[in-house]
Design brief:
six-stranded mixed beta sheet, single chain, alpha/beta, about 300 residues, Putative transposase/invertase (TIGR01784 family), 9 helices
Length: about 300
């Protein structure tokens, strides 16, 4: 039963890690649970053991006048000074997301460069967890991009862009935990942690990995904060409003195109209004009205 005195849908409800604010709350709470979960997730993505990890300010300073101010979801320095911008992107945008990722990686790398280091700046990684297809193909859900020479060999390995496609993980739902890789388990956890209808299966995955148990514990803690629910709800509302506006605009565009096509057919052909209505998916009454309008214009 929903508790009307709280924004939390139920006493056991968890925030949705696919929402960027909740993703950030879970990984950047700076608690033992969140730190160990973050370290495990990054280690899984990079396929190496991350030893030391430190949360950094998530807004790098602008380097030149009029430079776009950036904000990273989770900014991390680890091991020997390597830097990570970890992002959750819940939906596809109107812009080229790959361009954004490259620019963010470049900003992260340049902000780490120091005078006198003889260009030995540690690598930077822009890691994006995507709740949409960046490439709708059969490749791995984890794609790693670096700068390469014309012969295909890596340049210096300083600039890294990594995309983790959650949608490609969805088909694995229901697979026994012992048959999943750690990366696949993380993908399923991030995809369905907030879905109470899938709770039993996701719980079996969580219990199989220490890092996921830490993530669940951190998510449970931040889910008790009303502010986090208010932020998540406002983001979901904004996304719904945006999607509705896009749908309405598309429908209006389709309607205008259909009307324009019907007018052209009335002018250029001898097709009957009935056939034009069927061809353009318009009501017959509307086509007849368009025919009368054209007659009036030609008088």
């Amino acid at each position: 039963m929903k508790n009307t005195n709280t924004l939390r849908p139920s006493p056991t409800a968890l925030l949705d890690p696919k929402c960027d604010s909740s993703f950030k709350a879970m990984f950047a709470a700076d608690t033992e649970d969140s730190n160990k979960a973050l370290k495990d997730f990054i280690s899984t993505i990079l396929n190496r053991n991350v030893v030391d990890l430190e949360l950094m300010p998530n807004e790098p300073a602008s380097e030149v006048k009029d430079q776009n101010q950036m904000s990273f979801d989770v900014s991390v320095k680890f091991d020997d000074g390597e830097r990570i911008d970890l992002e959750m992107q819940s939906r596809s945008q109107d812009y080229d997301y790959s361009a954004r990722a490259e620019i963010q990686a470049a900003r992260l790398l340049s902000s780490s460069n120091r005078k006198g280091d003889n260009w030995k700046t540690p690598p930077a990684y822009q890691i994006s967890v995507l709740n949409f297809h960046f490439n709708n193909d059969d490749f791995s859900p984890l794609e790693w991009y670096t700068m390469k020479r014309s012969d295909g060999k890596e340049l210096a390995g300083k600039l890294n862009v990594i995309f983790f496609d959650l949608i490609k993980i969805h088909k694995l739902f229901g697979k026994p935990p012992e048959k999943l890789t750690k990366l696949e388990k993380w993908g399923l956890f991030l995809s369905y942690a907030s879905d109470e209808n899938k709770k039993d299966y996701i719980e079996s995955i969580i219990k199989s990995e220490e890092g996921l148990m830490r993530a669940k514990s951190s998510l449970l803690t931040v889910s008790q904060d009303e502010i986090n629910w208010a932020i998540e709800n406002s983001i979901h509302t904004a996304i719904c409003d945006y999607n509705t506006a896009i749908l309405n605009a598309e429908e209006e565009g389709e309607r205008k195109n259909a009307i324009a096509s019907a007018k052209n057919l009335l002018i250029e052909t001898d097709l009957s209004p009935e056939k034009i209505a069927k061809c353009c998916s318009l009501p017959l009454e509307q086509v007849l009205a368009l025919k009368d309008e054209l007659k009036a214009e030609n008088r």
